[in-house]
Design goal:
heterodimer; A: mainly alpha; B: 149 residues; alpha+beta; 5-stranded antiparallel sheet; 10 strands; elongated
């Protein structure tokens, strides 16, 4: 559980930053003249927190195969999409809302999801590179 | 059994001599222990017995209550359990990378990221083994420790 929370904390902050960018991009494209109050700064944190809920529930102690992992990620993304659409639009607005805006919203959620995975991968690559360098030093010392 | 230690001069080569009436199981165990300390491990392929230099072992894996030593191209079965090898070989550059595997760090070519917080080790013979995410922090700490010396 401790590992799950640590990993989730990292995902949370990365997703908050990317949600910020997504809101800026979507808003500038779809509603460029809209005005907001200070409460708008909380939106990325709220959306990030909501997106975190399925992560905590779906964490697996067991190490999964590539196929299992991909299926899990697919379900994870769909769950996040549904939660965010429900909280972002509400059941009434979903019926009334322009289908195009909904599609853009879903695409931006998927883009943020992909962005989080990409950034985590890059961080892992850096860690792997550091470990390889330390390993080479160890091998030279003990050769 | 009495134990005697005799100090010898620098000009003489160090040795261990066991005086026994019969080379029984106890004596074999002592000899095996000493060989392991020197860098050899007793292993088996079928009925045949071999002395495997520790430096040639790529990784040690426990499967179905049996322990296997994997070299570049061959593998052997050993009588010791994985935890016994871990106690013996930690100071020789072996590290636990999963519940059932000990890896010889001297045989690792590169470390790459894998899925879900795990890492992949590319070995000198082309094989790849996975470091479980639970054991990644321990590996990192050990590499830092070895670096500091």
């Amino acid at each position: 559980m401790k590992e799950c929370l640590k990993a989730s904390a990292g995902s949370f902050f990365i997703s908050v930053a990317l949600i910020n960018l997504a809101i800026y991009a979507l808003g500038s494209a779809l509603e460029p003249d809209r005005q907001f109050g200070y409460e708008a700064f909380l939106v990325p944190w709220i959306y990030g927190g909501l997106a975190l809920l399925p992560t905590l529930v779906m964490y697996s102690k067991r190490e999964l195969t590539v196929k299992q992992e991909l299926v899990r990620r697919g379900i994870h993304l769909m769950t996040i999409e549904l939660i965010l659409i429900f909280f972002g639009f509400g059941p009434e607005r979903i019926k009334q809302e322009d289908f195009g805006a909904l599609v853009f919203f879903c695409l931006s959620v998927a883009a943020v999801y992909g962005g989080v995975i990409l950034i985590q991968w890059l961080l892992q690559m850096r860690m792997a590179k550091q470990m390889t360098e330390e390993l080479i030093k160890f091998q030279k010392k003990n050769a | 059994m009495q134990i005697r230690i005799r100090k010898i001069g620098q000009e003489e080569k160090e040795y261990i001599e066991i005086g026994c009436h019969k080379e029984d199981e106890n004596v074999s165990e002592i000899v095996q222990f000493l060989k392991e300390r020197q860098g050899n491990v007793r292993a088996y392929q079928g009925e045949r017995q071999y002395e495997i230099p520790v430096v040639d072992i790529f990784y040690i894996e426990a499967v179905d209550n049996r322990t296997y030593l994997y070299l570049a191209e061959e593998n052997y079965e050993a009588k010791q359990k994985l935890y016994e090898f871990e106690e013996l070989l930690t100071k020789r550059g072996f590290v636990r990378i999963s519940k059932s595997m000990l890896l010889n760090l001297m045989k690792v070519k590169a470390i790459k990221p894998a899925l879900n917080g795990r890492f992949l080790c590319q070995l000198a013979n082309g094989e790849e083994v996975i470091i479980s995410r639970k054991y990644v922090p321990e590996l990192k700490a050990r590499l830092k420790r070895y670096e500091r010396g």
